[in-house]
Specification:
This protein is of the alpha+beta class and about 260 residues long. It contains nine helices and ten strands. The protein is about 25% helix and about 20% strand. The strands form two sheets. It has a seven-stranded antiparallel sheet with strand order 1-8-9-10-6-7-2. Strands 3-4-5 form a three-stranded antiparallel sheet, with no helix packed on it.
């Protein structure tokens, strides 16, 4: 399969003071929640194929998450209405690559996933629970995790394999989710070296095989946003994925990752 890569990285989270320190949170500038870049067309073509060919792997919506999914689609349409890249009509949207996507509020998450490059995850805090739970997602570009495995898990269950995710960090993350305000989304970014440029890389918690550092490498950067939805109070976690060949990086950036062992 041909690698789907951007021509450049618009963010360098390892090199910028505002993003290099964990958790590296920043306010999202107006109109910058959902982004379109030069890999939009091939990324969306892959997304369309995955939604058709592997729907059970990339799309999950719990019954209770349906209102939040509609809320998310409404907010995405409001955001795209201010973008010159989209043309929005009453029943359909013409996307930057020329696709016409029908607006189907009976399948709001799938509809939203066909509009934007970002993967879309909904987190909700059920009554009587202390944590947000992953209740719905359109996850076509997973970076070594499995939607089927994480679906309906709380934050601590989602981050179980992360060694640094101790009780103190779990409390801090939950406070962050509780404190997100409507209309004030925030973002952070990460970066990992991969031995494979494929965007669709689901992997279970048990499937963590070591990979030798020799061979071709790609840098995979995720811009992750958290936004409170105004009607339902759900938190939308959106992920914009960038992939660039390692050799396209500046020399100082290649040095920064020279000792990193790639993920398969």
């Amino acid at each position: 399969m041909t690698a789907i890569c951007q021509s450049h990285l618009p963010i360098r989270p390892w090199a910028e003071p505002r993003t290099s320190r964990l958790p590296g949170l920043n306010p999202v500038a107006p109109g910058q929640w959902l982004l379109v870049d030069d890999a939009y067309a091939p990324q969306m073509a892959l997304r369309e194929r995955l939604l058709v060919d592997r729907p059970d792997e990339v799309l999950r919506v719990s019954p209770g998450a349906a209102p939040a999914a509609r809320d998310l689609l409404s907010q995405i349409l409001a955001e795209l209405a201010g973008s010159p890249d989209y043309r929005i009509a009453e029943t359909a949207v013409v996307c930057p690559d020329g696709r016409r996507v029908a607006l189907d509020f009976a399948a709001p998450l799938e509809t939203a996933a066909r509009l934007v490059q970002e993967d879309l995850v909904l987190m909700q805090k059920p009554p009587g629970m202390d944590e947000h739970v992953l209740t719905a997602a359109a996850l076509c570009f997973p970076a070594s995790w499995s939607l089927a495995e994480k679906f309906l898990r709380p934050l601590t269950g989602i981050h179980g394999p992360v060694e640094a995710y101790d009780a103190d960090l779990a409390r801090r993350v939950q406070r962050l989710f509780d404190g997100i305000r409507p209309g004030r989304p925030i973002w952070r970014a990460n970066a990992l070296v991969y031995a494979d440029p494929a965007l669709f890389q689901p992997r279970t918690e048990a499937d963590r095989r070591p990979v030798p550092p020799e061979g071709a490498r790609w840098l995979r950067v995720e811009r992750q946003c958290l936004a409170r939805l105004p009607e339902t109070g759900a938190v939308a976690f959106t992920i914009h994925t960038y992939v660039v060949p390692f050799e396209s990086l500046d020399p100082e950036d290649r040095v920064a990752f020279s000792g990193a062992e790639p993920v398969a």
